[in-house]
């Protein structure tokens, strides 16, 4: 079997999903190969001479090897200006590579002028005309050799930015290898399939679609019973771990699927009914020990929606021996300064925190389970312990008003020294969430595959007003502006821990 991670996503660490699938297959004696077509495709595209002949494009093409080397060099991350130039020039090469095909490509995104990943008809068109995809010259040469001995190809489709390329590759395979079985899974596919009334529009293109963690279902499709879904150590050996756009290997590891809190209103995980399934803490520690011995990563990325309190405690007591970061909930555990210091000693360099709002009423309406006085102590403790914070804020929820949004601004300004990075998002209402009908559904993203709906905000605090507030007031506050400038261009939180001043040996 060939497991494929398609373009386009950030190419700074190996894809964890196909590594877990590979481990499950190999543990049952089923041979497989891995293809990170996302990384390979971007590197291939960067080698193509640009059609544009302006000074910036010529400079970017001439310096492409130097800039790739810079992103793989830890010294670059200690020089933000050098880092920014390398990212900007590489992004420029990708951006101009497909303008004649009405596509804008970046290091973190893929957008077509007329085709939308939210419309099944457009995805089918991409499959019918694979030659129109900018990556076609790459994958039409790469796939045949890899499929010489494979009877099945599996695609891991996680992001909207991957959808059009995924279906172009599927269309090519369906045409050139009609006997090949094609399986489609991943996070985006899971979201599609968990919509009420889901009907598969891709039955003639894809033999099987898999929702949720795919190990057990894939094994069953390949003739191994569903009881064979035991946890196995992820297998990254088939991936080019030395070629990613980071200084050394960033090792992604998932200790759970779903969210242990699972109580936030308007959360897509809750709307989709995704259950929480943790790997036993002792097994997580064992896995990390084995993986770090085998692969000598420079940084561990814990992929959980929120690292459980039990795992945080275990990491503090049993450091993995490698710097690490991930998402955590704001709670009393992190309000303990000694515990935060223990996390720092264990190698924690950054925590991503979903604060969402600096107004207590808004937090209560969202059922976040966060008290602002606790959040203040957590931020102060992490700052004192030397752990960077990537803070996530969400504006425009039904419970927020402009007055409440200004309270969020005031909270961030008061804690600006403890907040290293900011992610500012405008709220999207899940199409089939519990609250969608309460606030009235309206057209939002056009397409039968859209996961969100517009709604009538009870306080007339709509997306237009929210965006105006963010651009004209929130981001212009001096304390906030300084934080916003810290954010790594294109790679955002994936490269943020590398800019936090810790030494990457």
- Work out the helicity level: 25-40%
For the record, the count of structural domains works out to 2
Q: Structural class of the helix and strand makeup?
A: alpha/beta
Within CATH, the superfamily of the largest domain carries the name Aldolase class I
Write down how many β-strands occur, each being a DSSP E stretch of 2 or more residues: 18
Largest sheet geometry: 6 strands, parallel
Taken as a percent bin, the fraction of beta residues is 5-15%
Total number of helical segments? 20
Radius of gyration: 23 Å
**Outline:** globular
For this structure, the CATH topology of the largest domain is: TIM Barrel
> What's the CATH C level of the largest domain?
Alpha Beta
- What's the arrangement of strands in the largest beta sheet? 8-11-12-13-14-15
Low-confidence stretches: none
Overall pLDDT, averaged?
Answer: 93
Overall CATH architecture of the largest domain = Alpha-Beta Barrel
- Terminal-residue CA separation: 36 Å
